[in-house]
Amino acid sequence: MLLILNKNADTSEINIIKEKIYKMGFEVNEIKEINYHILSIIGDTTKIDPRIFEVYTAIDKVIFVQEPYKKANRLFHPNNTEINISNKIIGGNKISIIAGPCSVESHEQIITIAKALQMSGANFLRGGAFKPRTSPYSFQGLKMEGLELLKYAKQETGLPIVTEIMSTDYLDDYIENVDIIQVGARNMQNYELLKELGKINKPILLKRGLSSTIEELLMSAEYILLGGNDNVILCERGIRTFENYTRNTLDLSAIPAIKKLSHLPIIVDPSHATGMWWMVEPMALAAVAAGADGLMIEVHNDPENALSDGNQSIKPEKFKQLMEKLKLIAQAVGREM
Known about the structure:
The protein is of the alpha/beta class. It folds into 2 domains: about 1-65, Alpha-Beta Plaits (2-Layer Sandwich); about 85-330, Aldolase class I (TIM Barrel), CATH 3.20.20.70. Helices cover about 35% and strands about 20% of the residues. It has helices at about 10-25, 105-120, 145-155, 170-175, 190-195, 215-225, 255-260, 270-275, 275-290, 315-330, and strands spanning about 1-5, 25-30, 35-40, 60-65, 85, 90, 95-100, 125, 160-165, 180-185, 205, 230-235, 265-270, 295-300. Strand 2 (about 25-30) and strand 3 form a beta hairpin. Helix 2 packs parallel to helix 10 and helix 5 (about 190-195) packs across helix 6.
């Protein structure tokens, strides 16, 4: 529920209204800008009679929000959320680039790739330490050793690291050492994990589930936001459809849809979306043109012998060329790299 305040609203009366909302057991978020002043009521407001607020002269209008997600809703937060990670902004005018291998495989591999990415202008280094795989026989990652190698790569290049969390077992280690904690598609609806991530003050990269709707993605973000962690980044990585030529079907329409519905930044992962290295470039360019706030791209120095997802990884030389093309698209749509 939104309480639209008039421009001459008295501060003392606003405080009385806020206190009334708190006593009713709801959370209130005050949004004050030059052209509007809003009190948003967070919680199940379906049983509230709007007439109880009509007695206050400070209130011009009461609006019910139909969508089940509140904190992720643009109505409750009209301005875009910008997330600062080591003085790098995700959600601002600049396009953020997260790049790196699907899995951390060795010291030489991750350092070689990280240095190449740094030279090409990447903003963040991604790499899987704990890997959720469809087959139990597939490479599951180096686990804590992989996390240590990512830390070393960060020391060498200065690139903040992004890696996926599987459960709360190593949460303390992630809080201490990881700059952006990624929640993979398979865990998008792991609500107990999301609740725990809502209790920390660390950026969370939330990937869309394999067959999840946009509303379901925003509801998962709501779990994190409701816990008090406002640093949520959404990621479109393709969804499962009847089409089987590509690994998934990249839903580029999700970008403008989420921009309309939510204030949260959204990035795109063209690597997992297509599953084919030669499709990464055109889909990356299209994502930026469609309004994405960033990209997550898999890069490997030896994709032919990669332990996981080599077929969707581009080589560092190709990544460098892509970065130059992305600058042109970003400029064309009024953004920067």
